[in-house]
Specification:
The complex is a heterotrimer of chains A (about 270), B (about 400) and C (about 90). Chain A is an alpha/beta fold. Chain A is built from eleven helices and ten strands. In chain A, the strands form two sheets. An eight-stranded mixed β-sheet of chain A has the order 2-1-3-4-8-7-10-9, with helices on both faces. Chain A has a two-stranded antiparallel sheet with strand order 5-6. Chain B is built from twelve helices and 15 strands. In chain B, the strands form three sheets. In chain B, strands 2, 3, 4, 5, 6, 7, 8 and 13 form an eight-stranded mixed β-sheet that branches. Chain B has a four-stranded parallel β-sheet with strand order 12-11-14-15, sandwiched between helices. The longest helix of chain B has 21 residues. Chain C is of the alpha+beta class and about 90 residues long. Chain C has a single domain, classed as 2-Layer Sandwich (Alpha-Beta Plaits), CATH 3.30.70. Chain C starts with 7 loop residues before the first strand and ends with a helix. Classes of the chains: A alpha/beta (about 270), B alpha/beta (about 400), C alpha+beta (about 90). Chains in contact: A-B, A-C. At the A-B interface, strand 2, helix 2, helix 4 and helix 11 of A face strand 2, helix 3, helix 4 and strand 10 of B. Strand 2 of chain A pairs parallel with strand 10 of chain B, so a sheet runs across the interface.
Chain lengths: ~270, ~400, ~90
């Protein structure tokens, strides 16, 4: 793979992420996927919400929009509607997407609007120093789950699939090559593409749950990842705590802004009289 | 019912019987609006319905978002893509939009927000008028920020002020609120729509320098040295200008900064740029104020009853006049202050328990008594009620 | 061999010393220096697997040479292409 520094705002580096944070690895995968896809740097908009992952937009040299908490997808929807020629990438975290922005996720997926969403899932609210998120596994610890998390986490890929996303995949920071491939396929896909990238937060999640430093957390990702095929043959109890990686959905469905452009074309042919 | 003066700007063209909400949609299209995102809510829904029909016919785009917050977000995203963009809502939805409205103010992304005010608080009285969102229009989003809000009293004025809202949003790169109320939104009146070409349309300042020299939040080339109220040039996304937009406090290059003089400068500049434009934005449609001894201050739907009351008072020998600001934010402070120095008393008539009256009191600064007459039960006050309140102010027996 | 001839260049200003590259280098090319940053200690051992570059969360590692054919972006993990780690 080639050098990706030309996509970075080097004058604004180093970034704010903690030592060993998986988000930098995932952002690298995004940039390599963009590089491999040969996208025009001027025609890519990268949009994020609020949280550690969402700080990514400051560091990358595209049209970048760092929005409000959970709202990256509706901002992206408005931009895509009026600039259907642009490639829109949303970078977001698990709190941003699965909690405060959950409604926007399912509706962007339902519309099948051509946006590639990459969720940096580190199972925790890092920016506010380690509260549990909708992606924190049951019984794991967080600053707001001092007795262990009582809630169940989402299966985000299942959620996106059920809501109608037309490309859905999951990988991890450790599986960075596979992750890059899936992001690349998401970028090439016409429609709403959703890639969950499992990340590591050594500072808050790792430390509180005694998962070791960053290399050990990457090892955990490696050890606990199973393919969709492997998962099929496992009992639900066995699958618990496993990361199922692979492509869950890849289908062709009319894309929203194309459908809208067809409407404009149809009305234009009818003339403007009412 | 009313004899509120017809606006003068949108004078010619075809005449149509229009609802306030319809006039708003017509005004938006005439102003160049090509994107609308909204969520159904009474009493503004007709605007969304009309925009869904009209926009694709004009090459624009409409989307019904999943909620009010998303609608506001989509409008900002679309504006950043270069389209003039609008959303329309009512009280509860206006509350939900506040965070992103602040984002638009801070990132200087032009957009128009229509709030057809209804009875509140909370879900309140969905089909009944109120003017309870006046202070929310000024201070609804957190942090210090500029605010621009226009209040129409007639259907013609809805058209006129919708155009003005877009032009102001574009010129100043700031969100502009069209603060209607249910009376004006649902009322039907004859409107003389201007022909295309008669409407003055303003576009945002776009970059006058190539991408390599563009500084997203820097002063425009040619700005005087030390200009602390400038409006930066705005590049559409996707046109070769790559830059960062963030709701974090940012430097001139758009990237986040920490506390200090640059942060101080930014927040002050945003308020200054609107304050500087305030004299051009101010538009007071007054009646009988020149020789007035008692001043009625009213706006929007309430001003229709207030004007009638002022005329009835004149018939009774009371020298009353109506001060009717159509731009309520920035508040016409000087105009009210100089009138307060001349009159014996001011009555503020509004459909709330005292909101714009607070500004009037500040401007009057004790020069004359200021009283407020309000209603909050979802009914427009009758002219006779306003007259009684006015007579009480004069000391006459009612 | 001086570091400027090494195929792996570490930008110490960006390196935060997380040790990921050191752990995932199959040939022990990298080690922690006195400043707590990654540094190249066995440049001649580098097999251009790109693990360090791909897994560096800080964009602090750049390869100055690449394999002629390049590494496939479609392989599934670091371990499969770059060899095991610990």
């Amino acid at each position: 793979m080639g050098d990706i520094h030309r996509y970075l705002r080097e004058y604004y580096m180093p970034h704010i992420w903690c030592p060993g944070c998986g988000h930098g690895i995932i952002l690298g995968a995004v940039l390599r996927a963009i590089d491999i896809a040969g996208l025009d740097q001027n025609n890519v908009a990268v949009i994020s919400g609020i949280g550690c992952a969402s700080r990514a937009t400051g560091y990358v040299d595209f049209c970048t929009l760092h929005t409000t908490h959970g709202r990256a997808l509706p901002f992206a929807t408005g931009l895509k509607m009026v600039r259907p020629d642009m490639k829109i990438v949303v970078l977001t975290g698990d709190g941003d997407t699965a909690a405060i922005g959950g409604n926007h996720l399912i509706h962007a997926a339902r519309r099948n609007i051509d946006i590639t969403t990459v969720v940096f899932n580190n199972s925790v609210y890092g920016m506010t120093s380690g509260q549990y998120s909708p992606m924190t596994p049951t019984s794991r610890f967080a600053t707001t789950a001092p007795y262990g998390n009582l809630e169940r986490p989402f299966d985000l890929c299942a959620l996106a699939s059920a809501a109608g996303a037309t490309y859905v995949a999951r990988s991890t920071a450790y599986h960075v090559r596979q992750l890059t491939t899936y992001i690349g396929r998401g970028l090439a896909h016409k429609g709403f593409s959703f890639i969950e990238a499992v990340s590591q937060c050594p500072t808050y999640y790792g430390r509180r749950n005694r998962l070791g430093a960053a290399p050990a957390m990457l090892e955990w990702q490696k050890r606990n990842s199973i393919s969709i095929e492997q998962a099929k043959d496992m009992e639900p109890a066995e699958r618990e705590d496993k990361i199922v990686t692979g492509e869950f959905v890849n289908q062709t469905v009319p894309e929203y802004t194309e459908v809208y452009a067809q409407l404009i074309g149809r009305l234009g042919r009818q003339g403007e009289s009412r | 019912m009313s004899a509120v003066p017809e606006p003068t700007s949108a004078a010619t063209g075809r005449s149509r019987l229009l609802q306030g909400n319809e006039a708003c949609a017509e005004g938006a299209i005439a102003a160049g609006c090509r994107f609308f995102a909204g969520y159904p809510i009474t009493p503004s829904t007709e605007i969304a319905e009309l925009m869904s029909e009209m926009l694709p016919r004009h090459g624009g785009r409409f989307i019904q978002m999943e909620d009010e917050i998303a609608s506001m977000a989509a409008v900002i995203g679309a504006s950043l893509g270069g389209a003039k963009a609008m959303t329309a809502t009512s009280g509860p939805g206006f509350s939900l939009k506040q965070e992103n409205l602040g984002f638009a103010a801070f990132t200087e992304i032009p957009c128009v927000i229509v709030d057809a005010q209804r009875g509140g608080p909370s879900s309140g009285l969905p089909t009944a008028p109120a003017q309870g969102d006046v202070m929310q229009a000024r201070w609804g989003t957190h942090g210090d920020h500029p605010a621009v809000a226009f209040c129409p009293s007639t259907v013609s004025e809805v058209f006129e002020l919708t155009v003005k809202a877009f032009n102001t949003a574009e010129a100043l790169r700031t969100p502009v609120i069209l603060l209607m109320d249910e009376v004006v939104a649902h009322m039907r009146e004859k409107v003389a729509l201007p022909s295309p070409g008669e409407v003055r349309v303003v576009d945002r300042p776009r970059p006058s320098v190539p991408p390599g020299e563009y500084i997203a939040y820097g002063p425009p080339p040619g700005a005087p040295a030390g200009d602390d109220a400038y409006v930066p040039e705005m590049a559409d996304f996707g046109t070769g200008y790559r830059y960062h937009v963030t709701g974090l406090t940012h430097g001139k290059n758009g990237l986040p900064i920490g506390p200090g003089p640059e942060a101080e400068f930014l927040v002050r500049r945003l308020s200054r740029k609107v304050e500087k434009a305030a004299p051009q934005l101010e538009l007071n449609r007054n009646e009988l104020v020149d020789d007035a001894e008692y001043l009625v201050v009213s706006y929007g739907g309430a001003a229709r009853s207030a004007l009638r009351a002022v005329r009835l008072a004149r018939e009774m020998g009371v020298a009353a006049g109506l001060f009717r600001p159509t731009t309520i934010w920035p508040f016409p402070f000087q105009a009210v202050a100089s009138l307060a120095a001349k009159v014996k008393g001011i009555l503020v008539v509004e459909l709330n328990l005292g909101q714009l009256s607070l500004e009037v009191e500040r401007a009057a600064a004790g020069h004359c008594p200021v009283q407020q007459y309000g209603r909050v039960g979802g009914e427009l006050m009758r002219p006779s009620e306003v007259l009684d309140a006015l007579l009480r102010l004069t000391g006459r027996k009612v | 061999m001086p570091e400027d001839k090494a195929p792996v260049v570490v930008n110490e200003a960006w390196c935060k010393g997380c040790d990921i590259c050191i752990n995932y280098c199959p040939k022990k090319v990298l080690a922690r220096n006195a400043a707590g940053k990654a540094s190249v200690v066995k440049p001649e051992a580098c097999i251009l697997c790109e693990n360090c570059e791909l897994l560096c969360p800080d964009f602090a590692i750049t390869l100055t040479r690449r394999r002629a054919k390049g590494l496939s972006a479609t392989s599934t993990s670091v371990a499969q292409k770059g060899g095991g780690s610990r």
